């Protein structure tokens, strides 16, 4: 019988890790799994298919926003109640997937974010990443009155109402902070729970210093524009 939860894994050139990530998810939860292969040039798609999960092969690289919106549209079309985003590089610990979904099932919130920063779980990250997260926490508090501490976490779960929103519109790049802002301003409820995260277990990050500067500028501008609407 099909699960009510779909785990969406956006993947770009993650052939080295995608198989083990899928195995770990199957070990810790009985959710259905969809890999959105975002135009990879390595064996990501074949490695995912070996694990007998659903795979969508995008014809070109759309970036994280396009890959996730593809997954959200798939979830809506197939009637899933909940969707969970999990990175393909092994950073997210699937033992926490059920913890992310539980508040959604209870009907208490609309989105649950796995947070590295609300308890000391030994995650360090780079100084630049932590500084960026603190900056966006400040802006969100300023614009919405609510403090979200791990604004850039991609380990998050949503209910069907938010799924429908994201299937219609989702920012094309660097969407994590922007969608939190949009949901809070529309009256949705968001909760953070503490999780464990690890350094990536393979592949290469696409984040560079130049992209980080663009990220800060683009997301900050999007938040200001959202406030002015």
TrEMBL record:
GO terms for molecular function: transferase activity. Keywords: Transferase. InterPro entries: Glyco_trans_2-like (IPR001173), Glycosyltransferase_2 (IPR050256), Nucleotide-diphossugar_trans (IPR029044). It comes from the Bacteria. Residues 7-164 form the Glycosyltransferase 2-like domain. Pfam families: Glycos_transf_2. Signal peptide: none annotated. SUPFAM superfamilies: Nucleotide-diphospho-sugar transferases. This is Glycosyl transferase, family 2. It comes from Moorella thermoacetica (strain ATCC 39073 / JCM 9320).
């Amino acid at each position: 019988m099909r699960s009510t939860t779909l785990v969406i894994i956006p993947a770009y050139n993650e052939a080295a890790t995608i198989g083990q990530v899928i195995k770990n998810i199957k070990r810790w939860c009985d959710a259905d799994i969809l890999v959105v292969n975002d135009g990879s040039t390595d064996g990501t798609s074949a490695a995912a298919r070996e694990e007998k999960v659903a795979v969508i092969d995008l014809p070109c690289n759309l970036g994280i926003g396009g890959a996730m919106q593809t997954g959200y549209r798939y979830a809506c079309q197939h009637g899933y109640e909940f969707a969970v985003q999990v990175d393909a590089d092994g950073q997210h610990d699937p033992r926490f997937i059920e913890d992310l979904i539980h508040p959604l099932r209870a009907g208490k919130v609309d989105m649950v974010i796995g947070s590295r920063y609300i308890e000391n779980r030994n995650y360090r990250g780079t100084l630049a990443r932590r500084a960026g997260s603190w900056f966006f926490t400040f802006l969100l508090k300023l614009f919405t009155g609510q403090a979200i501490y791990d604004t850039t976490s991609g380990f998050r779960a949503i209910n069907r109402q938010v799924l429908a929103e994201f299937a219609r519109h989702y920012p094309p790049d660097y969407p994590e902070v922007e969608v939190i802002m949009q949901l809070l301003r529309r009256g949705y409820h968001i909760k953070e729970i503490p999780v464990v995260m690890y350094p990536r277990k393979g592949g290469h990050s696409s984040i560079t210093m130049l992209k980080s500067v663009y990220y800060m500028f683009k997301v900050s501008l999007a938040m200001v524009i959202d406030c002015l609407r």
